[in-house]
């Protein structure tokens, strides 16, 4: 009887591990943005525990900040991280890693250098465009003459060193920032790319998250939704957890905290804030699925952060 019980328990454990072949990594920053990148880990997609005893994983270059980090894994298996270099300026930050622990290639990328009137370059993200064989780089910028008139811009690059001249990439007719893209491949009826972004319109005041749908990472984008979050929402990140699609976002009015909404069809959304648990003080970041093997190695890390090497 004991053998049968033990065998059943072992089988259940193996089934549980197999059912969650992936873990979820949350990369984020804390205000005022000068303390580095932080990681938190989840095994269910909703509850996240601090890694590295709550210490950052690497520090910003001297005198600089790291805000709005976006973490992704390329087709070559290497991890890339981009971030807002500063509150004002024409640059984004970049670093890369083979293991999420040792970071190299840290550099400032003056991606808006061709536009001297650029006021800011916020919340960059990068996506591998399979059809083009290049990286699509996205961010939001406004010009000094119109500091509140943000648009989402893009540039293409094959090597993350040489970049095409930027141009406005998405303009629905009102001010937009904080774009993120989710590619749904798990259900044929929902097979599409989804652009999640902040409606930054000020008159009338909206500051809400919306969703558009397209056939590729480059769009074209249509079927723009109504708001899926309340006013004072920004910094969305989309993640699939089981049969649900979760959009986490930064609610930045008191009591400020991360919140979430979820859907099964990208049309009907419900509040999921009571289901999530994220580290206190976390700000605009990104979520990445990683293997349990990689997660296990990250959980073993206990050490002081270093500035990523150039």
List the helices and strands and how they pair.
Elements: H1 2-19, E1 22-29, E2 38-42, E3 49-50, E4 58-59, E5 67-73, E6 79-84, E7 92-97, E8 103-109, E9 118-129, E10 134-143, E11 146-157, E12 167-170, E13 176-184, E14 192-199, E15 208-214, E16 233-241, E17 244-251, E18 257-263, E19 270-271, E20 283-291, H2 292-299, E21 306-307
Parallel strand pairs: 4-21
Antiparallel strand pairs: 1-2, 1-20, 2-3, 5-6, 6-7, 7-8, 9-10, 10-11, 11-12, 13-14, 14-15, 16-17, 17-18, 18-19
Write a structural description.
Helices cover 8% and strands 46% of the residues. The chain has a four-stranded antiparallel beta sheet with strand order 3-2-1-20. The protein has a four-stranded antiparallel beta sheet with strand order 5-6-7-8, with no helix packed on it. A four-stranded antiparallel beta sheet has the order 9-10-11-12, with no helix packed on it. The protein is globular and about 50 Å long. It has a single domain (22-307), classed as Tachylectin-2, Chain A (5 Propeller), CATH 2.115.10. It has two helices and 21 strands. It is mainly beta.
